[in-house]
Amino acid sequence: MHQPRRLSDKIKTLAELKPLLQSRRQQGAKVVFTNGCFDLVHSGHVQLLEQARAAGDVQVVAVNSDRSVRTLKGPARPIVPQEQRARVIAGLESVDYVVIFDEPDPLRVITELKPQVLIKGGDWTPDTIIGRDVVEAAGGRVFAIPLMDGVSSSDIIATIKKRAASESTADEGTAGVSAHAHGGRKKKVSTP
């Protein structure tokens, strides 16, 4: 069956994706759906998407828009803009299509795309997965895949902040020594 290869062929609007998936289903393909913010893509995301892809023939990943991420995570997020997040996810071999959605949850996208398999990470229980009723009513399956321990975008951001704060504190402690050693001014270091 035809699989898109270029990133631009993988990133679709909802209107573009609906007929493509209908055609694939008519050819006997099972459509798998998952979604997320994917703000800082990490090995846990990659593992989840690989495992999700194994549950069907075509995997669609819905990526929260910038506005949607801000609603869910607060004004300091996302770190990475939606177009870049979509391109990174589309660059994964396990992903066939990516669609960006603007709502806080993917219910409308799930309702319109009608996947046969709906998958989320293990931080969701099957009874709390949004869209479960829609997929199961159509005879589909819904399940959660266990998360990789100790790996999350929020944890990565917290680590970066902690390290930046400790480096800032260390720099402040050596600033006087550095300035004194260079006649009251910091020495510029050029790099090639």
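^ that was protein a. below is b, sequence first then the tokens
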Amino acid sequence: MQQSAGNQTSSDRILVGVSTKMYLGYRESLDWLERLRHEVDTRPALAAGRVVPFVIPSFPVLPSAARLLAGSPVLLGAQNCGWADGPWTGEVAPSMLAELGVRLVEIGHAERRKHFSEDDSMVALKVRAADDAGLTPLLCVGERDGGQPAPAAEFVYRQIEAAVDGDWDLAGRLSIAYEPVWAIGAAEPAAAAYVSDVVQRLRSQLTAAGVPGRPVIIYGGSAKPGLLPTLEGVSGLFLGRFAHDPANFGAVLDEALALSGVDTGTAAQDNPGDMPILHGE
């Protein structure tokens, strides 16, 4: 049986992240990042590395965000990337993101698939380019309509298969954000039992396909405080608008720390000097 969110193994890490999309302006983004940094700094147990916070602001904010977050356990992500250097007007190369201190990049979000016509082949190009640049692709996947867990897991599995072009070793280097499209922007997240069922089915399929280690699969889609402890087999949460209040981000960090079993009175690192691993181990 897969480990539940509340029964972590010694090698598991819980990811807690947030994307600001385009909701915040430049100055507002910096103010928000300072407040979020405070939420992290007041939780020294995060230094153990068992709970990994990450933030994904807008592109223009990235250089300042890197400076604001320096010395903290918060990892910096980007909301998108191009698939190559060169004559691609308006795109941002993964190599440049790496220079800016970005550690992971969101690829294949439902909004980009729908509104910018990003198909499976384009997503696959971006995943490969991000991996080649040393970034962790945060691959967004999810079924369009609510239904039963079995077909949802099969649909998501096919999305992952297409994104890595059948390279299951590459799949082992991804972090996967399971975001049912119908739950994005909804008043409530998908039901915990539904999410847990889909994720556990997906884990079984990925293992059978030969994906090494235990893949990182986090849930997104109206995720908010109170959800994480109810999930089984999920590696963390990808928050949206609820974390625009940094206190909510802090509340989810507290839930993750409680689930991780870390002594909140210690700041000792599991792997001193090492950056957190964002993919399966």
